[in-house]
Design brief:
Helix content of chain B: 55-70%
Oligomer: heterodimer
Helix content of chain A: 25-40%
Radius of gyration of chain B: 30 Å
CATH topology of the largest domain in chain A: Rossmann fold
Number of strands of chain B: 4
Number of helices of chain A: 10
Bound molecules: adenosine-5'-triphosphate, magnesium ion
Structural class of chain B: mainly alpha
Number of helices of chain B: 14
Order of helices and strands of chain B: HHEHEHEEHHHHHHHHHH
Largest sheet of chain B: 4 strands, mixed
Amino acid sequence: MLEISELRKRFAAAPGSPEGKLALDGIGFAVRPGEMFGFVGANGAGKTTTMRIVMGVLKADAGSVNWQGKPLGYAERQRFGYMPEERGLYQKMRAGEQIEYFGQLHGLSAAAAKKATDELLERLGLTERRNDSVESLSLGNQQRVQLAVALVHEPEVLILDEPFSGLDPIAVEALATALQERCRGGVPVIFSSHQLELVERLCDSVGIVSAGRMVASGTVGDLRAAEGRTLRVVVRGATPGWADGLPGELSLAGDRQVLLVTGGDDQEILRRAIKAGHVEHFGVEQPSLTEIFKEAVA
Amino acid sequence: MNGMMLVARREIGTQIRTRAFKIGLLITAVLVGALAFAPKLLDRPDTYTVGTVNSQQLPLAQAAPDAKFEWRSFPDEAKAKEAVLAGDVDAVLVDGVKVITDGEIESELGVLMQSTNREVKLGAAGVSIPPLQMESVGADTRYEAARTGIAVVLVLVLFMLIIGQTMMVAMGVVEEKGSRIVEILLSSIRPWQLLGGKIIGLGVLGLINLGTILVVGLGASMASGFAAEFPPGMAGIVAGVLIWFMLGYAFFATLAAALASLVSRQEEVGNVMSPLTMLIMAAYFVAFYATSDPTGTVATIVSFVPPFSSMVMPVRMAATEVPLWEVAASGALMILAVLATLSFGAKVYERAVLRTGARVKLGEVLRAK
Ligand SMILES: Nc1ncnc2c1ncn2[C@@H]1O[C@H](COP(=O)(O)OP(=O)(O)OP(=O)(O)O)[C@@H](O)[C@H]1O
Ligand SMILES: [Mg+2]
């Protein structure tokens, strides 16, 4: 399990802002093996800073990062896969060689690195581009190479900062499948993203960060439950005033009346609706992650 | 260790494949080869064409074994004059008593003809003069010209290679820092491995360059016959050059990496490197000065002061005989300087290379805990 607790980080004051910038204000969460954790939050909320601290690129002022119960050190990080927010590749180096090189740096033998590279290139649809220099690839293809670099050594943990940004829908699917496979193999995956539908679809759990603090976290189901249930009832030709006294909003759409209600006795509401007219729809509204997110960071 | 070697191998692999490297190597090889033939072309033995009119040939060749003489005989003075004016002959001896020339005569030829003539006449009169015995009691200056020539070429080669490779190190560091490749690199290897690998890799490329220069230079010298003028102990000089290059390069490249790690953009490299570039230039000027006065006080003293010694000592070694203890003492000082630079440079690099954005101040880096 990867446990991140009580991380604090203040960036040194730039000239003009005397007290510096508090980027992380006690953020903490945990990711279990085989769990896909979606890390969401507004721009500047502190996602990248958190990931950099986990990868040892930045030092936290306080707090800890533990992996399998022990403080995370250099030797363990070697078996992590990391995709930084600002993509970094050797522009003049060939795509395939680059992936192999990083595989070897992470401890693979030359042969193993080559084999893993071949597989990844195949998987990411880059086999024909193997010998092209990175600078000659399109942005999205460079992005795929960057992903391959993070994945080549079969990492024990994956930390990916906005891995989906800039990918076309096909590549998004390929990457999603690749990540899900790794996850099923027991690898904890943390990725940040602003594509909330994608996070909602892929992630077992989600953490919403705001101003350096974790404001909500858990499975998407948990987060929804915390939001409270909203009931949506659609009745055609209802007698006016049937919903008086219910804790909800009634709106009119043609000859249909739509009631959105939070709380209250759902069975009682159903009985009243049937009595009032023809019930076309009666169900619990699922708030989207976007709605939960807006609510949480508000 | 393994990580460092992987980094070094990548540096070598990527650089060696570039066209710039191949062309650079080719150009140096051609230049050095040409240089080895130059003395032969410039320093051709003197050749004189001497004519006679009704005279005996003088035994000039005997008196000046290094020069070449061509003899032509003319039927009368008028024909001889024509040839002199046309520049076909340098001088014509007429009736054994007179020399005609075109306005001037090369002083060497004039002196030679006068003294040979005197000797022949005296010999005929039965007087024989034993030639003067030459004996040298000073340093062996036979090889001085060749030594100075080698030293001058050496200064230039060392300077170009050190400044070139040092700049490559700086640009490589900024490439990795600016593009954030360091973030991934440093999550799998240590900063000193990355730094060390880069310095070693580019150093090996420098050695490949230097080796090519030496091999081509020596080979061409043998082919041109210039090698005959080499001073004894050429092998020692070559070995010295290689070792001094490595020491000097290690010193300057480490500082270059440390300085370069302070900035994030290639445009800033020249600026941040300028103190170091000036230091290398200073070393170059002192070393160049040493070629003309290798035994002088300045050259002798500076050949002990790191990092200048890395360029001045090999020049002194080529230009003159340097006692072994001096070389050893200067080498030991330079090694100490390299070790100090390595520890300082690694510290700066490690602390600065992940701090992208605005230029990091050196003082700030050193003060940080
Ligand atoms: N090197 C730095 N120096 C000063 N402030 C920084 C630095 N890096 C980040 N910050 C500040 O820390 C805060 C958190 O930034 P961070 O990059 O972690 O946000 P993020 O959640 O990744 O945002 P985004 O979604 O835009 O990528 C921001 O206010 C940012 O300005
Ligand atoms: Mg970010």
